[in-house]
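Re: Re: token formats

Sure, here are both.
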Amino acid sequence: MAVVLAIVTAAVSFSLLTSAVATSRVEVTGTVEANYRSAYDILVRPPGSRGELEESRSLVRNNFLSGIDGGISMREYRRIAEIPGVEVAAPIAMVGYFLPSQFLQVGLNDLVTDDPEQVFRISATWVTDRGLSKIPVPDRYLYASSRDNGRDECRAFDQRSPIQESAFGRSERVDLSCFGLGAVKRATTRYGSLGEGVRPFIDDGEPADGAFVTSDYQVPLLLAAVDPVQEARLVGLDQAMTNGRYLTGLRPRIEPARPDLERSLRYRQLPVIMPEEVESDEQLVVDVERLDAGDPSEVSDLVSSPRGRQWLEGLSGQVVRSTTLTTDQIYPKIRARYESRIFQRDSPYWTVGPVDYVEGDDGHLIPRERHVDKGEWYSPLFGTYFGPWVSSDVGFRQITGHAASNEFTSLGGVYSSPLLRSVGRFDPNLLPGFAELSQVPLTTYAPPAAAPGDERTARLLGGQDLLPNANLGGYLQQPPLMLTNLQSLRWLNDTNAYSDLTTTLTDPLSVIRIRVAGVTGPDEASQERVRLVAERILRDTDLDVDITVGSSPEPQLIDLPAGEYGRPALTLEEGWSRKGVAVSLLDAIDRKSLALFGLVLVVCVSFLLNATVASVRGRRRELGVLSTLGWPARRIFALLEVELLLTGLLAGLLGTGLAAALSAGFDLSTRWWHLALITPVAVLLAGLSGAWPAWRASRVVPIEAMRPAVRAPRRASRIDSVSGMGLSALRRWPGRTALGALSLAFGVAALQVLLSIQTGFQGDAVGTLLGDVVAVQVRGVDYLAAALTIALGAFTVADVTYLNITERTSEIGVLRSSGWGESQVRQLFATESVATAALGAFVGVAVGATVTTLVVPIGLTTGLQAAALAFGIGLLAALVAITVPLLRSNGLAPAAAIRAD
């Protein structure tokens, strides 16, 4: 029965595991093939632009475009586009950020009463980072007097500092405006009430008088140049247009600033397209307070006095109006101005550098903070600071300003500084989707949002992603909100327009995204096509080349330092991409399949060997009698082998039926020849496993066959405990002890190797979206293999325990006759079994560690964890298995036990 059970278990487990692995291979291959192709196959960047973390971890950072404002020449681009096998070569030239402002006014006419003297405080706050950062704007004050000449009286105190300059240090002056009540009444009659809150500040329709406060709202617009034809072929940008026309066929041209005037200054105009909307986390909150100024007769003197600033700041009041503006409201107004023919002052512009990281002790990435020189925001042409308010917060990027010149071209009457004119709109949401599991960064069209990386951050952000804002030096950067064509670069790179330009003159392109012709999936031919193109690019240029086909997003945890305006430190999850995940997944599955086949087969053979040895050993005396009666050795050998072959045949037939039923039940892709091979393999295994014990049994001298198969001790030793007697008994049957221990050792080794392969496999792939999906598919096979292998080893130890108890029944009787109780007898055999199991588990761990090192090298900590887990599970399984045979030692009366001998 034991031999039949061993062969059935061996045959069925081997068949089912191979079928399960084959099924997983089919599922994994299908998943990989479906998610193999991303938006582009190869990413080409300037030399040195690949960060240290990208190098060491085989990653492509999520927001790789930010910080690359040139480095690839047009000659290199043309050379790459001409390489055989390049189907699409789509370049991007990151030009820089323009900072258009939308001027606004806060109307206060409806708030002014008939009181003779009134003072208002206007408090503005920029709110960003999901409400965590609140950047205050220096307060402004409005003084309304019953005298119509109130404006003249306080003109000297109308000391306004530029709003951008104040963002980098509190001004010591007070922004004070004065107006008369009569002016308010005239403005109300002439223009209607201005009390609707915030309204556009129109250049040619500004009210001449009245109560209002002006402000401006800057929306950074990142300009990038693309090849329209290649971009359309890469991502279908031309199909995402919602208004106007696409960039194909358009060229920069010279236009007059005022089309309605025949003689007007002319400007270089560049065609651009802009997105329908902007995803930005930023808003301006404006609160208006009516202040309690006290005695009206003293207000005028206090306002005009040297301590007027302290007096105004000390006044208390009540909020009478609160208005909130968001980028979603302002951006359409700015876009409409670019679409109109109104003169736009687009110069100067700014470029930003990349983020540098350090790796924390917990593996999180920490961006390094950078100091931004205030002078980078100053424009000598306009004589003011252009920095957005939120750019005064913590920065992580180097910011470089490119001041526009006031020079004319050699054509005469044409300004060198170019202007941007929107010719159409596009909606990034209409771009064709790419497989979620194989996405690569497409930050040309989508902002690089960062999700909360832990519960604390999720609570602080309200469960929402952190989005970019107007901080040009901030961690997250907006995607290009304006796209132009490559022909426009010649005017954007003109030193007459921007005298400080250097590298972008000769190397304007930032990246090139490449699709290779003939790539159909993870097959060897497709991989070879991509590899050959990548090698050719490396050989012909000096650029950084990354093969991104088969990549998959791998989230990285970012520890973002705290800001200066209330935002605490955050842990964010950002979707970087790991290169070559698809290929590594298939390779890992192949390695795992090979390991499963080998280990399961070894465990099955060892288990079967123990069963056949026990079967032959149990018939030692019978074989000795046959030998005494004259049976030759070859006849005894043939007798044993025929019995084992018939047993194997019976077990094979049972195993075939059981395997067929289980395959159908678990929906495994079992081929018919797998099932057909079970019976002949079972017969072969039975014959081979019994050959050695049958040969030994046929050569035993009859008198030796009558003696117990116990090794005589070399010298007597004193035994003081039941456990000590149990440990010494291991040496009585060294072969049986070794075989039981080795059987469990193979099971433990198999489990440890599977755990190590799974862990090492996860280190390469799991953590990426594609790897997570594949891991879920193959994990069931791994656990099934681990359970079968450890069960085989544990059953072998139980079988050894059973044989020990069966063959030593008379010994049990003697011990019971001499006063031993049932508990002591159980302790004796339990000690033998546990020691055998512990020895096997220890050897298995050592073997598993060796095999693991050869198959899939892993870290020391991971290896120790896998070893400890395999040792514990193996020992526990053996303890459970030996419970049944230990019960056999109970209830044997001493006389009956001795008589059994």
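Second one below.
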Amino acid sequence: MKFNYKVCVVVVGCGVGVGYLLGGFIPRDEVKSPEETTEEAKTLPFSNKDYSFGYWQNGYRKHKGDTSKDILCIETGYFGLSLDMAQLDKAKFGRINDDLDYAGALAANGSRMRKLENTELSIELERGGKVYRAVSGVASKERLQGDRFQGTRLWESARYVQNFEIQGLEFKAADGETLVTDSAFRVVAWPNSLSLTAKVTPAISYKTGPELGVNGKGICVIEKAHFIPHRPELEHEQFTLESWIKIPNEFFHKGSGWLLCKNRNEATEGNYGFSIGGGQIRATMNIGGGGAQNRFTAKTGHHTVVADKWHHLAMSYDGKTFSLFVDGHLIDSKEIGKKRILGKGVLSIGKRGDGHGGIAPVVMDQIRVWNRSLSKNELLQHARTPTVMKNRNGLTYEENFESGAAVKHPVWENTKMSIRLKDAKNNWYAEKKVVEKWGVGTHKKVNVNCALVSSKKEDTKIAVAMKLNKLPPVIYDKEFNAYVARVDRPKRDWKGGYNENRNYDDIDITIDSQEEKAVPFLLEMFNPASITGLCPILCDENGVPTGIPVQLSKNWHYREMGAYLRAYALLPTIKGQKKYKLRIIYGFYGKVPSASHAQLSLVGYGGNGRWDQLSIGAWGETYCMDMDMSCVDVAVTDVRMLMARNGLEGRKWSWTDAGWGGDWLSLNDTNGKKHFFNGIKTSYLSHGPCLTEVKYDGYYGTQREVDLATTVRTLRTDDYARTFTTIKYAFDKSVKADGWLFKMGRTRGYMTPKIAYGNGAGLIKEHQVPNGLKKDTVFIPKTTLTGEGPWWVSFPNASSDRRKDWGTGYRALVIRSYKANIGGKEYTNPTIEFPAYHSADEGESNLDFLMTAPEGVTDFNPGDTIEFDVEWITLPRVAADYYGPNETFRKHVTANPSSWKTTYREAVGNNLKVNVDGGTLLHNYPIIIQTDKEEVTVEIEGGVGFVPIRFEGLKHAKGYALYQVVDDKEVKLDQSVHGNDFWQTDYDVKTNSFKMTFNLPLDGLKKSKWRLLFAPVGPAAEKK
């Protein structure tokens, strides 16, 4: 299909720009201007200092034995705060008085934070006249014990707000006495304010023995397992086993192993029981003994179990089907159809029945064994009412642990909580007295707000509205230090979930104020229409994008809260009433799928560090990065396709697969250990929806051996996912060059039957990959790609053997530029290598791709630099797997199934030649132009798919239009569906200017010409 589009551009700010009409191409002279005016741009009430960062000074992931301090840094344009997890009472704080903007502060790394001075931070509890002060968090103990670093939770951390929670505070008195608590310290930072909150409850010091159960008493197993001798009532051919469990928070991330185990271990005939790992519950049964073919496991997803919460577990076997229930709901089942042989071993709590292996800490109650398979309704009733059991028919064994010593829990009285932060100018202090009895499980909070810039809250009122919903009043929440609008499971007249998602959630915002300022605002939405690809943008009341940034932070892992969006913004006010529309985009933005780059919280999943999730549309992830490496030890994790399915009858609008994993730089230290990220800061310049842009800046290595600067982007499109990564490594110390510069791969269960690589002229070589290559076998040793770029690598027909019910495809990489200066020598062609990873289950080989140091280079030394620009794409193997609307792409894949030609088409087709009149070309793909005139003409040679084009330095927020010049006529593109919904605007506070981004449909156009014009109406036009 040939597209001849003319794009109308509107910049954000005052008034409304040239109208966007529905239904195809509109000649310039036929476009009617809207009634609303386009005013002259004016300065919005933002400061150059309105940004913040949250990061770890010495890195998050460390090798065992690394003794560097775990220091959390909160850095904004106004102040800095650093917290040592091992010495919370020895914080550093200071005001930042330079004028660095968001980009400048990113590039400054941690230099500003080194100027902070010691300050007084005290979090105290007073009982009976004795004062206990918080001196550390559980994170410091995790490091000392060599455990996984999980004790500090990253909830939100992007452009405006840092929300970190330090768990497991240790309170000590001056004489060294420790007060046992279940407590956390939350730090919420806006650019010019800081909110500190302590949440505390008296806590149990867990030890093996009697403990409070779900009803009455239970049993606690911490350091020693509990064994119940065999008895016939524990064994039946058809049976149900159920129990209640609770994993104490302090042991939650250590908890791994058997919760209940009958008959030795999983390789033993008759074995059955529950185990846990990573919050995942497994029910296991063995019929036949010995090998794995006789072990049957039903399991939940990860993060199913929540710390410090009672969960009901049940497993059943009816002679045919083996089933696992959690909290009364069927989670998994397996068809077996074999007769179960009864065992005679012990029933063990917290350990394998044979006594081997470690302890899985657990509190347990109400173990029951039945000689029948209970119904779903019976198990649901048991899970809902642990004190009532209506039908005891078939119950052969029951243990409620009511015997033994009495259980006493601490009760506090006449307690005072307080928080203080003190610097040279301010003494911020708050306290809370608790006179009444205070028992375990009742949390109390104390909060102090520290304002670096004074602001009057009482003169501002905010109201929100949403179609079909009556929303609660907006409140000023001290803990978030913002006006908070909460939308809980809203009604919609359209269907959310995994479908096309062509509609938006529009939240109307009305602000009444007595002054011009920027007001901190948070929209907290529970149950968004689709969490995996949403993108909030701030519009004026007519739905025209304003360019005012909205922070995109979200989570779908924390079961206590469910899937939620937290969208933060600084909302400009006027003297009087101002209206906005916060628009939440899901699958499509206008007629084309949207792009988003979100900060995704992993709290509840099992990794509490920074994780960034990119998506095109809202049908699952397309690309993820574990930037704190809190889950894995590589930068790139989940990689998936756009609009792909498993054949013509496969599911649409669903998750897909295109090979897990990849990495940026990976080099080893002198001990053979990988250099991890160190002091990485992240700048979220744009979350979408037309072109995202996020920058990462910091170091690799404990001694900061390598300086890193990276930009990651993805785009709005309808053919296949593209992720752009621009990287520069600058070596400050000598390191061995024995790893990789960039990696694609590390995917278990992936099959790579062939590989191909080439350059701008075409194919260099294609290889059929033999089966059975063992891990780390080097199939293609170091090879320098010849010729002129762009260079490219492809895995045609690669697929996953793990999932048969969704689309699975292959990955490819385009290397658009490459330059290395090593030892005074310049290298302009990349060097690649293909080692093998784990073979797929069928024995088919599985290759990784590496970009390595140039051939012959064994070391990098101070002064060496490497920089490159790569584009990661994911592709369907055959046309039947693609269900998107791009007919040009479909025809290509039909003619070239599983072919390297599809990768080559992208490489050379988007090797654009761009000429600009009225501005300066900064980047050719995506196209980025710095304008110097209000009329800009762009000539483009080439183009595949929807090509992003961004104009920077625009003086106005609205009133621009982008036209395609066709046969000397200017024609406007209209991709809108709901009005004003196909372009992106970003406000640049440093220059008081705007950026506007469009996605140009260039398929089939060998050459095209585009013209950006400013065409205001109303007062602005009269002044011109």
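Helices lie at 102-107, 138-144, 376-384, 887-895, 900-909, 1019-1023. The chain has five domains: 26-41+911-1023, 52-191+193-203+413-451, 209-399, 465-586, 595-602+612-885.
- S.
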